Amino acid sequence: MAVKKLQFTNNLHWLLTTGLLAGSTSFSYAATQQTGQESEWHCLPGPNGQGWDCNTQSKQPSAVKRAPLPVKQANTVDTTPTTVANQEAAAGSSSPVSEEEVFGPLALPQLDWVKLDQLTEEQRQKVAPHCSGAYIEPYRLGMDYQGNPADAPIYAEAQDSEYDQDGTAKFKGNVLIRQGYRQLQSNQATLYQNTDTAEFKGNVILREPNLLLVGQQAAVNLQSGRMDVKDARYAFHKNHSRGEATTITRREDELVVLESANYTTCPPDSNAWTLSGNDITLNKFTGFGTAKHATIRVAGIPVFYTPYIYFPIDDRRQSGFLAPTIGSSGDNGFDITTPYYFNLAPNYDATLYPRYMAERGFLLEGEFRYLTPDSSGEVGGAYLGSDDLKKGNRQAGEDRWYANWIHEQRLTKRWHFDIDYTKASDKDYFRDFGTSLEVSSQDNLNQTFKTVYNGGDGNHSWTFTTAVQKYQNMSHDRDDSYEKVPQFEFKGNLFTDSGFEVDYLADATYFTRDNDWKYLRKERTRPEDIENEVNRSVYGEGINEFTNAEGTRLYAETGVKYKFEWPYAFVTPGLKFKHVQYNLSNLDREGFVGPNDPDHRRKNPFNLKYDTNPSTTTPVFTVDSGLFFERKTLFGEAEFTQTLEPRALYVYSPERGDQEQNPIFDTSNNSFSYAQLWRDNRFSGYDRLGDANQIALGVTSRFIEDNGFERFRVGTGQIFYFKDRDVQVNPYYSEVINSESNDVNINESTRRYLDNQKASTSPLASELVWNISTALTLRQDWIYNTNEGRNEEFATSLRYHPDYDRLLNFSYRFRDQVDRTRKNEQGNAIPGQFADGDIEQADLSFIWPVASNWSALGRWNYDVTNSRRLEAMFGAEYDSCCYKIRFIGRQWIDGDDDIDNAETDNGVFVQFVMKGLGNLFGSKVEGFLEGIDGYQEREERNKL
To answer: What's the number of domains the chain is made of?
Structure first.
C-alpha cells in the first residue's frame, strides 16, 4: 500500500491543546504512486451534502515543504530528524495496515524521558542534581515555528484511507497532522463531515512546545474545538512534571481538565509524591494549575488534604493559593501559613500570608509589588491582634505588627530616589515571627528616603545626594543611633590621563534622636514580668552634654594627588584639607563623665567653654608608593609567576585641639586589619579629624598560574608612629593621654587601648589566602601586638567544596579581651564579679554524602572561652530529583541572650520539600541551615 500524504488547503482552526485540525469544506490528498510519479486527488462534498466527489489531477508544485513520513513503527517516535527522501524510500514497498499495527501498545511509555547518559553535555548542565534524566522534546518539523499556529497551513499524512458516501473519511497507519508548532499523531482517525466530529484511536500523541499528551482514544468536536482523551498521560518538559488521568478534556477555551488525575515532578519510575484530585485544571496561558479536593500523597500514603490548591506548571504566577507551610514550635505551637497570590496585572501583584499559631493567635501578613518602566517597589506589613502567648513574652496581650515600604524611582537618566522604610510594634517582633517579605535589616530598621543625582563626564564625575535617615533600634541593650534629618552630600572626582586627580566632598547633616536613647539596665518591675519570666530594657537620657547634643554638622574635604607610574613602581603624593563645623543645641548639662565615675556627677574637668559652634580644620599629607617584582618559579612540578610587592604609605596630619567639644554623631574607631594599614584615617565618620605622623610598611607576595589563577597570596605589614595619637573618639581618653599623673583611675580595657595609642608601632597585621585547589581554600588573618608580645586577633578558615554534594567548613577565631563583669538574671552587671572576656570560638559545618542520595549535614559551634555549645546540629538529608526530606536534631542558644544567663533550647525538626510544589512542613529549618557556609549557593544550584 503506498504511503499517502494529505495537505489541507484551507487555513483551518487548530482545535486541540497540542494541535488538531478543524472542519473544512474541501481538502487535497496527495498520493505517491509506486512509479514515483505524483498525482493529486481533489475532493469536494457531494451535491447533496453527503459523501465526497473526488478526481485526480497532476500535482501542483507546493511552495511549502511537506511533512516527513515516519519510518518507524506506529508505537514508536523518532527523536531525530530524518529526510523526506529517506522516509519515502522506506515506505516505497508497503503492505496493508493490520489491526495490530493500528492498535499497538500506548506510545511513549516514558513521556519523552531521556536518561542522563543519553543527554548531550549542554542538556546535562541544565539537569538538577540527583536527577537521572530529563524530559526532552524530540525534534520534529515545525517545533521552532514562530507566530500564531492558527495562521499556518495544515498538513496531514496516513498510510491508508477510505471514503464513504455518508461523509465519513477513515485514515489508518501513522496518521500525522501538523499545523505550525502543533502536531497530532495516531494509528487511526475517522472524520465525520455531517457532525463536524472526529475520532482518533491507538497511540494518540498530541504535542506543542513544553507539552505532551498521549492516550488510547480521543474524540474531537471540529466545530467547537472540544476534545476528550481517554486513559491519558501528560508531561510538561520545562517544568519537569508529568501525570495521568482517566480522561483529559481540552475545552473550547483551550484549558485542559483532568478527571481522576494526578500530578508530580518525579521521574517516570517514581511516585515519591503525587498531587491527586477529581478535577485538575491546567492553564498553559497562565502557567498554573488548580485542583479541587486535592490530596498529597507521599510514597502512596495520604499526608495532606485541601479542598482547593493552586500550583505552578511553569515559572509564571497566577492568582490562587500557594503551597501551605506547616510546622510546630515550643513558643508558637501548631503553625500553619496558607499564602494566596493575586496576579493583578503584568506589572503588579500581591500576596497574603494568613498564619495561624495555636499559642499566639492569627497573624495576617501581606505585600503588594509593582513595576513600571521607571520604578519598582513593594509595600508590606503584618498584624496580630493581641498576642496570646504568656510565658517568656514581653508583649503578652498586646497587638503585634510591622509595616514596610521599599521603592526605587528613576526620575531621569541621572537622577533617582529610593525609599526604605520599616517600622515594628516592638523590639521582639522579628525574633518571634520572622517575615516572608523583603526587609533590608532586622537589627536596625531602616526608615530612609534618599535621592541621588549623578553628573559629570568621562574625566569628571560627581554626585549630589539628599537623604533623611532614621532607625528603629531592635536591640534590647544597645543605645539608639543618631538620625539624619536631613543630610546633603556633594562629592566628585576629576582626573586627567597624565595621572593628576582632584577629589572633593561637602556634607551638611542635621542630627537628632529621642530623649530616651541611652540603654541603662534590665528589670522586672511589673507582677506579670515576674510571673512570665521576662526582662524589660530601661532607656533614659545620656549623662553629659556632648552625648545629648543635637544640631548641624558641616564637613568639607578637598584633595589633590598625582600618580607617577612605571611598570615596576609607583609613587603617589597627595594633599587634602578637612574641615568640620557644628551648630549645636541641647547643651544644658553641666557634668562630663569619665568612664569610671561611680556617681556620674564629675564636673567639667577640661574647663570647657561649651561652645555651640566648635570647628576643626586640618591638612593631610600622604605619599603612597610601591614596587613590583616578578619571576618564574617552580612549586613542586608546577610553574608559577611569583610577585614581590613592597609598599609604603606615609601620612602626616597635625593634631588639632579642642575636638573634645565635638559631639560623636556617627564616628567610631576603624577596626584594625591588614587593609587598615593603607588608609589615611583611623576613624569612620567626620566627628574626629585624626592626627598622624606615621609610615605603614608592608609587603605582599603572590603565586599566579599562567591562566591568571591566584594560587597563593600572603601579605604582612605594620605602622610605625613618630608621635602619639592625641585625638580620640572619647574626649576623656585624650585627657588621660596628655595627663602627666600616674594615678589616673582607668580600667584594664581602657589601659590597653591607651597603650596602643602611645605605642611607637601598631600591631603586626597579616593575611594569607591559599587556594590549595579550585575546591579547597585556606584563609588566615592574624594581628600580633609586638609591643606587649601577645596575639590580639587570630582567625583561620578552611573550606572544601568540590561539588554540589560535598561541603566542609572549619573556622576558628580568637580575640584577646580583658575580663568582663558577670551579669545577673536581669542582665545587669554584678559589681566585683568577673569572667574571662576573651572571644574564642570554633565552628565546624558540613554537608557530605554517605549513601546513594543520602547526605549527613550538621554544625558544631563551640564557645571555648565559656566552655559551652552555642549550637550543635546534626541531621540527615535524602535528596532526589523530585523531593527532599531532612531530619535534624538541634541544640542552640539564642544570640541575643546574656552570656551568663542564656538558656539552651532543644528541638527536633523534619522538613519535606516537594520540588515544583513547595514545603509541606518544616520551613523553619531553612533559617538555621543558612549557618552552614555555602548552603545557600547549594540550594540555588538545586533549583536548576
So the answer is: 2
